[in-house]
Design a protein that fits this description.
single chain, 151 residues, alpha+beta, Sufe protein. Chain: A, 4-stranded mixed beta sheet, 4 helices, 42% helix, globular
Length: 151
Amino acid sequence: MNTDVRELYQEVLLDHGKRPRNRRRPDRVDRRIEGDNPLCGDNITLYLAVEDGVISDASFEGEGCAISTASASMMTEAVKGKSVDEAAALHDSFHRMLTGVNGNGSNGNGTGKLAVFAGVREYPVRVKCATLAWHSLKAALDSDRSNVSKE
């Protein structure tokens, strides 16, 4: 990744980390789940409103490092208006991009703006920060009401 692109990615992550979108408790909640990353101190409560199989609203509360907060912010933006199945597929693409599961890590193709997180895989400890909101999303989509922990 060239220096200009890396700097742009860092700016996007810092912007969402400092000024997260959708950090609020919504009026309507159909699915709520809590996630925790005790290694970094990140915690999140994710809220989803789902109408006719489509995520009409997504928001979060909680505290975390800049990567965790930026990831939650961008994830909530990305899943609004998507069907539950589309959001689950986006989770899978994001997770593959960061972890290289099955030996086929991607460069972010198919993740749109979320490709800014591709560089996080160079810092394995930070992968858990970036994926906390996403694992919470997956549990909420699967209607798993238990807490999510990234130990």
